[in-house]
Amino acid sequence: MSEGAAQTLMPQVAEWNLVNEDGIMKLRRSWTVKSFTKELEFFRVVAVLAESEGHHPDLHLVGWNNVTIEIWTHAVGGLTENDFILAAKIDKLDVHDLLRRKPSD
């Protein structure tokens, strides 16, 4: 998928960032969760979805309460439409009870 094609799909996953890492385009999004154990629960919920989709994103624990997910299709070395579909499905997961509220909430 070209960067232009990816840009046209970005509004469908507005919370995600399009990144180019060493020539590989990826979707990346980060969340702040309530605790380390909530971090692991968040990943469990995402893992169940990813397994059912047969599409496995890169999951990163960053510190004790930050999580980052990167989605890209390893087989093609970049993005496909399926990556955007998975990102949209992750956005719809009911994980609000795991997330830390922003100070403005």
TrEMBL record:
Its EC number is 4.2.1.96. It holds the Pfam family Pterin_4a. It catalyses: (4aS,6R)-4a-hydroxy-L-erythro-5,6,7,8-tetrahydrobiopterin = (6R)-L-erythro-6,7-dihydrobiopterin + H2O. Gene3D superfamilies: Transcriptional coactivator/pterin dehydratase (3.30.1360.20). InterPro entries: PCD_sf, Pterin_deHydtase. One of its GO terms (molecular function) is 4-alpha-hydroxytetrahydrobiopterin dehydratase activity. Keywords: Lyase. It comes from the Eukaryota. Belongs to the pterin-4-alpha-carbinolamine dehydratase family. This is 4a-hydroxytetrahydrobiopterin dehydratase. It comes from Flemingia macrophylla.
